[in-house]
Design brief:
heterodimer; A: alpha+beta; 9 helices; B: mainly alpha; 2 strands
């Protein structure tokens, strides 16, 4: 490499380091703020409750302190093979969802809404202060849990929880919540618009990129979301887009199909099935970890319209709650556009097809690492003939490039003539360029779809591959003492194989292009370094395939630069 | 408009294009000289934004296994070079 090339490489490396430092800064625990302290559910702290301010006011109310609990909390449990629901009398709602077949860090089960301020499915007038009244647990059988409460206005509220009936044997994460209001008084009761809490979502791993933690909703099959960073103050990039911290998000969502909170892999969604939601509300919480750091969580609520009840009249609102892993094939079966929470982006058809195909391969192979490798193999086998052809013509082209240069000089004043001469020369030597820009541009959506699919496929969680403990995470095996830099093996192998491949590639084209080809692996490592290991596994496998192919074409005799007389005898050196 | 196209194509040449070459592996790349991106730049310079873009897109459409190959600069009228490149295919 010449000097410019070295300068460019060094610049790339510097940029890479700078980026890593920037990301590390972003991920670093923020200084503990005194706004809110998440306390265990059962704490009986006599905290003065913030006065319930009007929600419709122009100034959103700041998130209040932990609601006071001045009664003994007790929980009921509902469970199936996949999940254990913890139901609390505090607001008569789901306090936690234990996923029995999903492990988080250090062999702990994944628990949705663990240690959060509000439960899932509580009815509140102000989600900021979220006063949760005591409900009475009604003994009931048939896999149902019922809560009961009579308000001071003499309205009986009855909430019934149960599993949505299903024929599927596994991965059932849908729950019913039936809310019944009965006016037992003698006067007309006017229920003002109320909020149903969505609980909160936080990253599964402390190292997760925070932008995956979202408040999401779906209107007419179109999902919208804001992530936790929406709330945070931003210094902006070079002073641009500087803004202060935002406390509360409130958005009108007429006729929303669902609203929920989600992280990279799991989601809690609330579907009002017989009423229409009005507004989605969200706020950010800092969850303080035992080690002194804090995790950003997003808490949400959905506003439902009010109604009037004549004495003796009953109103019933039904909700379906999804709380579990974002398994695309299961979400797609639920029937309220729940699968839109996947956030696949504009190429969702490609991502969905690839995800379904990967799951099919997993069904036969039994391992996700094997499924990813098989997926790569199939894609590359399909491209094999095209690439072999390409390799051969590349070798010929590179052998012809001195002659090409000659022609360029000879006919530089007559491009028309030169074109004909070049074409004649190609024909004479049996060179047939394959590929082109169009096939290459067509590949972009496929690889982008793969990229978006692999980064949030919950199926890959805890899928192992030799030293890789979890294909959905970077395969960090150690941290360098300098700056605590993680050592990720697969992206490094990927970079090494790419360099190897670039060295093997026959040289054609202009030197600038060649030099750029040397940097591409670096740029890619830059992208993939802290990414899901599955992606690096995919590209490493693909590189190995291409290297194999290049060696195979190398084994064949050097293209003989002979003018071919008979047109039928073309491509003599192209035996396979 | 012209400036935006110029910026975009130059960015493409230095960022996206190498990635595509790397993903596509050896044997991928433009069949023409000058390359499609350079052609688009030239076409925009010579014929203005809208016509230049159209010519560039037509060139990309030709840059596939059933299209032409070889030396194919932007013609002043754009038609002769197009025909020449197409006739000499394979």
């Amino acid at each position: 490499m010449d000097r410019t090339a070295w300068i460019a490489v060094s610049l790339c490396v510097i940029a890479l380091v700078a980026w890593e430092v920037y990301v590390a800064r972003q991920v670093q625990p923020r200084p503990v703020q005194q706004t809110f302290l998440s306390s265990p559910v059962a704490s009986v702290a006599p905290v003065a409750v913030a006065s319930p301010a009007a929600i419709e006011g122009s100034n959103p109310t700041p998130p209040g302190p932990t609601p006071a609990v001045n009664f003994a909390e007790h929980t009921e449990t509902l469970s199936n093979n996949d999940v254990e629901l913890r139901l609390t009398n505090r607001g008569g709602a789901i306090s936690e969802i234990l996923l029995l077949n999903h492990t988080a860090e250090i062999d702990q089960r994944v628990v949705l809404n663990a240690g959060q301020r509000v439960p899932i499915g509580a009815i509140v007038t102000d989600p900021s202060s979220a006063e949760l009244p005591e409900f009475t647990t009604v003994p009931s059988a048939n896999g149902l849990v019922q809560f009961h409460r009579t308000t001071p206005e003499n309205v009986e509220i009855r909430k019934t929880f149960g599993f949505v009936p299903t024929t599927e044997k596994k991965d059932n994460f849908s729950y019913d919540m039936d809310v019944e209001f009965r006016n037992a008084g003698t006067a007309v009761y006017n229920q003002s618009p109320y909020f149903v809490t969505l609980g909160a979502a936080k990253p599964v791993h402390p190292t997760d990129v925070s932008s995956y933690t979202n408040l999401a909703w779906c209107v007419d099959g179109k999902a919208g979301s804001i992530d936790v960073n929406w709330f945070a103050a931003s210094n902006g990039l070079f002073g641009l887009q500087k803004r202060p911290a935002r406390e509360v998000y409130q958005g009108k969502v007429a006729n929303a199909e669902w609203a929920g909170v989600t992280n990279q892999f799991f989601a809690t969604l609330l579907v009002p099935t017989n009423a229409k939601a009005e507004e989605v509300w969200g706020t950010r919480r800092e969850l303080h970890q035992p080690d002194g750091t804090s995790l950003p969580a997003v808490e949400g609520a959905l506003r439902m319209p009010g109604f009037a009840l004549q004495p003796g009249q009953t109103a019933s609102v039904h909700f379906q709650i999804f709380g579990g892993p974002k398994l695309y094939h299961r979400l797609a079966q639920l029937g309220h556009n729940e699968a839109e929470v996947m956030n696949f982006g504009i190429l969702k058809l490609v991502s969905q097809a690839l995800l379904n195909f990967m799951n099919l391969l997993h069904h036969y192979l039994g391992s996700y690492a094997a499924a990813v490798i098989a997926l790569t193999t199939i894609v590359n086998l399909a491209l094999w003939p095209l690439r072999t052809k390409g390799n051969n013509s590349m070798r010929r082209m590179s052998a012809l490039s001195p002659k090409m240069q000659e022609l360029k000089v000879k006919y530089k004043d007559d491009p028309q003539r030169m074109n004909q001469e070049v074409m004649k020369m190609y024909k004479q030597y049996g060179v047939n360029p394959v590929g082109g820009c169009l096939p290459m541009l067509i590949q972009i959506p496929i690889f982008w779809g793969l990229f978006t699919m692999l980064r949030q496929a919950v199926e890959l969680r805890n899928a192992t591959f030799f030293w890789v403990k979890d294909l959905s995470q970077p395969d960090t095996i150690a941290h360098l003492p300098i700056m605590n830099w993680p050592v990720n093996i697969l992206p490094l192998i990927m970079a090494a194989t790419s360099f190897w491949m670039t060295r093997l590639t026959p040289k054609t084209g202009d030197p600038t292009q060649q030099r750029l080809m040397m940097f591409t692996p670096l740029i890619f490592v830059f992208f993939c370094y802290n990414f899901a290991a599955a992606l690096a596994l995919y590209y490493t496998t693909q590189n190995l395939f291409m290297i194999m192919q290049l060696y195979q074409s190398r084994k064949q005799p050097v293209p003989v630069l002979e003018k071919q007389s008979a047109p039928g005898k073309k491509s003599s050196g192209k035996r396979r | 408009m012209l400036r935006a196209i110029r910026l975009f194509v130059r960015m493409y040449k230095f960022t996206i294009s190498p990635v595509l070459h790397w993903i596509g592996g050896p044997g991928s790349g433009c069949r023409f000289q000058p390359s499609c991106s350079q052609y688009l730049l030239d076409a925009v310079e010579m014929h203005g934004a809208s016509r230049g873009l159209w010519l560039g897109l037509k060139r990309i459409a030709r840059c596939q296994p059933w299209g032409g190959s070889g030396y194919d600069p932007v013609g002043t009228a754009a038609a002769p070079s197009f025909r020449a490149a197409n006739c000499s295919a394979e």
